[in-house]
Structure formats: C-alpha cells, structure tokens
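Internal ticket - ligand job 393, S-adenosylmethionine:
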Amino acid sequence: MQVHLAEHLPKNKKVQLGSYYTPEKLVNRVHEFVKHYLENRKTKCIIFDSAGGCGAFIFKFKNYDYRIADCDLKACEFLKQHFKPHKIFHSNSLKGANRNKYLIPSSAFLIMVGNPPYNDTTSEFRKGEKGQNICDEDLYDRDIGISFLKSYHKLNADVVCVLHPLSYLIKESNFKRLRDFKDNYRLIKGEIFSSALFHGTGTGKFPILVALYEKCPGGMTFDYIRNFRFNILGSSKTFVLSDFKTTDGYINKYPPRKNDVQKSPIGLYYYSFRDINSLKKNASFMIREHPNGIVVTLENFYKYSYLYAFKNLFNPEDAWLYGNLSPLVNIEDVEKNKRLYVLYAIKTNKIFGEIGDFVIKKISDYYKITFDDTNKVSEIEKTIKNKLNKLIN
Ligand SMILES: C[S@@+](CC[C@H](N)C(=O)[O-])C[C@H]1O[C@@H](n2cnc3c(N)ncnc32)[C@H](O)[C@@H]1O
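stdout (structure tokens):
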C-alpha cells in the first residue's frame, strides 16, 4: 500500500471512488494554508479528512488531534497500522454526517482537509462505471465532490481547506448547487493547479483549486467569486474571472428548442458546446441537421466563424486554465473584423467545398468579400492568433 498512490484498487474501483491520491507537493500547500489556525490555539482543535484514503494529508498533522474516514476497507486497514485505530472510521462520509459520528465535541475547532472525490455520477461517457452517490438527502448532488463540500457545513466545520475543481466556483450553475455551503463559508485563499499533477487522471487537463474557506455568516455570492484573485501554483500570474469577457450573451451555444426555427436557411449548423474544452473537442460547422446543431444563418455566420477560429487557433501554453470558461471574445474586434473570420472559416473548413456554390455566393454577397487566392491563409491565421493572444494578456 502507498500513501500517494491507490495501487491496491483496480481501475474501475478507482474511477468509482475517485481514488486519485494527492501528491506531496499539493498536500504541503494545504498544510501551509492551515498551519496558522493550529498555532497558539486555546480551544481544542481537530483536523479531519473525511475522504482520507491512505492518509496523505493526516500524516502531516499526526501531532495534532485528528480523524480520518474512508469507505475503502483496505485503505482503512492500512490507516489502522499507522494511526490510532479509534480515530479511523470505515464508513460512507456522506451518510449521517454529524460530529457525534466521529466523536468530535461540539466545542472543538474543526478543520476539514483533504481531496474529496470529484465524480459526476451522471457523466454521459462513464455511466455505470461511475456508480451512484449514496448519501443523506440534503447532501445529494450528482457530483460527489459537491456533496462533500455540503457535508462540511453539516459537520459545522470552522475551516475547510481542500482540493476541488475550479469549476465548482466559477461556473455559476455549479456555484448555486453548493447551497448551504456557499451561504455559510467564504473563500479566503485559492491556488489553481493543473489536473496533470495527478497520476492517471487522463488526457483532458482541467483546473483544480487548493481552496481555503472560513465559516462566515452570509457566506459568499457569485459576484464575490467573479472578483476573487486566484493564485496559480508555481507562477506569478493570477486569475480573476471578471477580467475575461466570454461569448455568453453574445453567441448562442444551444441547439434550437421545440418552438424555435429548426432549419438553417443556408443549410449550415454549428455543433453545440458548453465551454472552451467542449468547443475544442466537438465538431464545428455541419451541413446536416443534428440534435446538437445550432442553427447558423447568414446574419450570425461571422460569429460562428469566430468560434471556429477560436477553436483552432487559441492554443496558449496554459490552455488548461481556461477550459471551463465559455470561449473568450473581444466583441468590438469581432464586430469590426467580421470579414476576417468569415474568410478564415471559408478558406480552411473543408465543409465549404461541399456546401454548394450558391451558399458561398450568398455569404460573399452578404459580407462583401471575394474568396480569391490573394488572401493567404498563413497571413490570416497570424493576424487572428495575435488577436486571440491579447484576450489573456
Ligand atoms: C481523491 S481520494 C483522496 C485520498 C486521500 N485523502 C489523498 O488525498 O491522497 C478520494 C478518497 O475518497 C474516498 N471516498 C469516495 N467516496 C467516499 C464516501 N462516500 N465516503 C468516504 N470516502 C469516500 C475514496 O475511497 C478515496 O480514498
């Protein structure tokens, strides 16, 4: 058994339990974030990792009073060899979450640490493999990680310092799902790192946060998060959500609803997307109706041409950092340079070789451009890349 690697579990169990153990470098960040709460404290202080695995976090806090819980029996047996057995709890931490269960006095100053599993149990790609979220009714969420955050409120934790996806905070729909947690806790410090730091988490990199929260009446609003300055591990750069202008409200990203027009007048569709990650992964222009196809018209064609250019040419070194955001945009630039983006799409997407000359003619008349060969693709790409770089600098 290893403290930083869940080698004892087969792959499917690892996915189901979200058992991606934490590398020491990240454990150390949590330790640094919370140590000042432990120094010179007069009241009894307890450190608790309720998704403790093989104890990566609590090994650092062995000299304090601690609790560790996990539903993985083998991990708990390992823990009992290294920690005081009566402080180890083999159980589902999302069932019957309260202090009594873990022998934590109500007067104790409770600090939750760890890296709870992030696991969307309804994930369309991994249905079945991901299992179910069996938990108290009031903790339920389709993502087990969100249920864990809610459980800290039920335990009436004073401080919470855990790793979780940045998307829990910066996507407003996710933020709302935090319910009582967001209404009672406030983010004090946040440091972002790439999921690539975890062993065996696949190729799609996404931003994760070392998040420090304190209990606080009134909690936090989404506006507070929008203006929060996040640090980035190993970099002097910072990340503030409100610094970025996205296509939300400017470019529609959903297929038509039941009563909307379903057919494109120019026979053109764009594959729907949620964020930059899915824009990059999914198809782009399509010439057949599709359940995920957004209707493209002559009037909005330049906007989807912009998205197509963004999909191909926005490739910063730290692309993982932006993956959960909607595509970035400088609206003024796109409005001014409609023809540039249209030209790029027509010249580089092979679908426009199949669409029929009359559609190309309509586009060319509408945007008043000719698609002759004097417009070098390499030049167009260079110009667009320069513009896209400015979105993050
Ligand atoms: C990402 S690992 C973290 C382990 C350890 N804290 C570390 O960081 O190395 C998540 C842990 O949560 C445990 N787990 C998953 N669902 C759980 C649940 N409902 N109750 C208790 N533990 C759970 C898994 O068994 C796994 O050990």
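Auto-summary: The chain has two domains: 11-242, 268-390. The first strand starts at residue 45 and ends at 49.
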